[in-house]
Amino acid sequence: VQLQASGGGLVQAGGSLRLSCAASGRTFSNNAMGWFRQAPGKEREFVSSISWNGGITRYVDSVKGRFTISRDNAKNTVYLQMNSLKPEDTAVYYCAAGRSSYNIQYAGVENWGQGTQVTVSS
To answer: Who contacts 116 (Cβ-Cβ below 8 Å, separation ≥6)?
Structure first.
């Protein structure tokens, strides 16, 4: 079972990036999926999650209105569209599959993907 994140990179403040997380080994169509991030010297924090059917999305306050999470269960892939990026968004971003179909913040993570670096320059 593998979650492969991609799409990170270096971007100027105000720019956009789209992260992708492709799952392999089994389907995650019944799992909530999410993104977390960890900045240097800080703890890993929740960024966003999406329920199994895309009907429920959640965001940390600092990214609301700028980030959009989506999923394509046919492709076993989850996305994070990040717009209006700020230097404080700089972090390693991790995708995750939740233990629950609806929630990842409180139900916990079943599988972690490897991280992808996002660097936003001022």
So the answer is: 5, 6, 7, 8, 19, 92, 93
Q: In DSSP terms, which residues pair with 2 in a beta bridge?
A: 24
Q: How would you list the strands of the sheet with 67-72, edge to edge?
A: 2-6, 17-24, 77-82, 67-72
Structure-token pair, residue 63: 């990214």
* Residue 100 DSSP SS3: coil
Contact 96, 112 (CB under 8 A): yes
CA–CA–CA angle 28, 30, 34 (5° rounding): 60
Q: Tell me the residue type at 20.
A: S
79-122 pLDDT, tens digit per residue, is: 999 999 999 999 999 999 999 999 898 889 999 999 999 999 99
Phi, psi (deg, nearest 5) at residue 61:
-55, -35
CB of 64 closer than 8 Å to CB of 81: no
